[in-house]
Fold this sequence. Notes:
The structure holds 2 protein chains of 2 kinds.
Chain A: H1 8-23, E1 27-30, E2 38-40, H2 42-45, H3 48-66, H4 71-96, E3 105-108, H5 110-130, H6 134-154, H7 161-167, H8 170-204, H9 206-221, H10 224-241, H11 255-279, H12 283-291, H13 296-326, H14 339-347, H15 351-379, H16 381-388
Antiparallel strand pairs in A: 1-2, 1-3
Helix pairs in contact in A: 1-3, 1-5, 3-4, 4-5, 6-15, 7-15, 8-9, 8-11, 8-13, 9-11, 10-11, 11-13, 12-13, 13-15, 14-15
Chain B: E1 2-11, E2 14-24, E3 29-34, H1 40-47, E4 55-60, E5 63-64, H2 70-76, E6 77-81, H3 92-96, H4 98-102, H5 107-120, H6 125-128, H7 138-150, E7 156-160, H8 168-185, E8 188-193, H9 196-202, E9 205-210, E10 213-218, H10 220-225, H11 230-236, H12 241-247, E11 265-266, H13 271-281, E12 285-289, E13 295-300, H14 301-308
Parallel strand pairs in B: 3-8, 3-9, 6-7, 7-8, 11-12
Antiparallel strand pairs in B: 1-2, 1-4, 4-5, 9-10, 12-13
Amino acid sequence: MRELRLDKLGAIIAALALGGAFIAPFATFRANRIVAGEVKSVLDALPAGWSAVLLGIVVCAVAVAAVRSPAVLRLVAAFVALATLALGIGVAATHLTPEGNTYARVSPASGFWIMLFAFGLLAADALTRLRPAPFVRVVVLVAVLGFIGILLLSGSWDGLSILKEYASRVDTFWAEARKHVTLALGSLVAATTVGIPLGVLCHRVTRLRDGLLGVLNAIQTIPSIALFGILIAPLGWIAVHVPGAAAVGIRGIGVAPAFVALFLYSLLPVVANTVVGLAGVPRDANDAARGIGMTDWQRLVGIEFPLAFPVILTGIRIVLVQNIGLATIAALIGGGGFGVFVFQGVGQTAMDLVLLGAVPTVVLAFAAAIVLDAVIEMASPNTRQAEAA
Amino acid sequence: MIEIENITKRYGESTVVDDVSLTIAPRTVTVVVGTSGSGKTTLLRMVNRLVEPTSGAIRLDGEDNRALPGYELRRRIGYAIQGHGLFPHRTVAENIATVPTLLGWARARIEAKVEELLSLFQLDPASFGPRFPHELSGGQQQRVGVARALAAEPKVLLMDEPFGALDPIIRAKAQDDLLAIQKHFQTTIILVTHDMEEAFHLADRIAVMDKGKVVQYATPAEMLLKPATPFVESLIGAGERPYRLLAIAPVSSAVEPGAAEGAPISSAASQREALAELLWSGRDALPVAGPDGAVIGKVSLEGLAKRAAGPA
């Protein structure tokens, strides 16, 4: 029999998961949404059968993680453990909430989060080792999101505090979600539309490049709250003095300054990556393109741009992930978005409400990163090599 | 016919090409040689106006090359460079089809042309057409680069150190292929190189450039026998002269009447090859076989020695 050897990262994951399962509490029960709660261990939080199943699966997954095992097995173990955790927390919510009590709140406690982190790490590590094709990664993402969707729709999480917060805010949640995505994507589209031509211009005109990149760099260093503040005065002035500006929604506070600020933050990655991408186009290819009679425009569209595309896309990925996160702060100046729940929750010391804003933001950013990474890999010539070979 | 007339290129204070005039006969290979910085590449790039001259004119078949917009002119002139310059994101077939596509040829005509060129360069169209440049060897990439340059059937082909990145064996083969293709398409070629061996192998006429000026423009034989300046002489290399002289003439022009022992040498081989064979086999003479294989005479050590001698 082959000797079992310890996996370094796996050992840490195992220690974390075991600590999360046996030492830290699994769920918190509170009589209502604001009072301090009492924590429950796995054994208290779940019906006897369920706690046995959950602990059993955790121990098995930990065993797989701790020793050097095949990456596929590690991935399966991680996903099984994560799915069990997801189902388990729903069961705990139903189990702990007294029949007919609508004030009581059950939320995941530290043990749940620690195990989530540990098995998430195991899954990520296994995926890294497997190096799946970009398409496969998107499929995995869709499967995970689909599983979460099924859990949400089936109502098995309905007992959780975060979903109770959601239930009382269904309308505003989706309105804010729309605002959040509009802000993040809209500013990205605007920054791409402006940034790529600017990048091309910077590539062609060296003197412009240093100046413009310097300015954009400086903007990037302004803290976001400060930038929102700085924008209030000029935008307020425009709203008052430019006819029609107020009618299209330009005001000192609200969506307009948030949009402008996100747009300004987005410019640097887009412009800088366009410049870097174009500079990386092989000189030979450029020279040959000119030498066989392409016009400057044909060379830009046919040669330079396609070759720089993966680098430009990387810039767009940075911007999208950054904007999804930054858009949260827009709520501070009345721009809306998931930040509304975060700041309301902070104000009311209602952690569940904070999570209602934070969790969708994180999921969105994460999904956007995975999808765009996959697109970048598919767009870069290196992958086309592998496919063609 | 390409007429280069008093062409000068200055960058600020420095003169890169200094008052150069050359007339290049149609359907010939002209090789421009010189050390790096001699202005040979700049001269070449002024023919298709990748570089605009400071003064002077270049005419192609009597027409000033400024009569057309630069990009239209360049579509009519083939251009191949060192390191091939293939577009890494396009397949071999797409690369070759670039200029015909720019010119708006019909698809069927483009496909036929790509296929013809790939076959001509001994690359199987079905197997190589859909590949990407990085999947090819250096020699194959170089051939595709030349094929792309020839795709629109240009009368003139400009080549800037096209074989510089190839190893010696592949380079020799590529040079022979180029000569065969030049004969096939009747193309006028201007080729820039710093490799004298290559110049003597390929050229109908050689132009030697030094510090922006053409110091000698002559056939290889003339250049060997009467180098215009000490610079040309040093470029040729004193120790190489007799061998180069033999290398540029075929055995057929050295045939003497009479018979000799041993295996015959083809009359199409160079006299240098004959000399090597004589020295290596320790013989005084070799039989010479004509194109049909029949022995037409002999080539002797003594005869070759006379031919290798410089002017008294």
